[in-house]
Design brief:
The chain is mainly β and 134 residues long. It contains no helices and eight strands. The protein has one domain: Porin. The chain has an eight-stranded antiparallel β-barrel. Strand 2 and strand 3 form a beta hairpin. The relative contact order is 0.23.
């Protein structure tokens, strides 16, 4: 069941790279930068994920990143999910992320499963929303 909305961020894809894959087709690596709020605190997020096509027309991906609040608190994240291409360009992703932090202000994120919606468009704009998964 979805719990509290933990954050929302908006930003831009800053890079793409096509990587050789050991099996199957190539992997595409994407790096992005976003700004928004996490637990009500202004924050910035930089992350990188890779994705690979799977049978049936969807993609599987894994990523990692770091979020820093305006006050300098940091949290790292790792995640995975599945995505689909959208008509007109961009992608729509759904998945889960897990946070780790030493910050007392962000400590409630430790050990929490968080689900996300990650949307991109044809102009490489990004919108991501996060909810606690209870």
């Amino acid at each position: 069941m979805l719990g509290e909305m933990l954050g929302e961020e908006r930003g831009k894809i800053t890079g793409h790279r096509v990587l050789r894959s050991g099996a199957g087709g190539p992997r595409v690596e994407v790096t992005f930068q976003c700004a928004g709020k996490l637990l009500g605190m202004e924050s910035s997020d930089i992350g990188t994920y890779w994705s690979a096509m799977r049978p049936g027309g969807f993609l599987y991906g894994e990523g990692q990143g770091i979020i820093m609040t305006k006050d300098g608190d940091t949290v790292i994240w790792v995640g995975q999910g599945t995505g689909r291409f959208k008509p007109g360009g961009g992608m729509s992703w759904r998945g889960a992320v897990y946070y780790e932090t030493a910050s007392p202000k962000l400590a409630r994120l430790n050990g929490m499963a968080v689900v996300y919606e990650h949307e991109t468009d044809a102009n490489d704009n990004v919108v991501t929303k996060h909810w606690e998964w209870k």
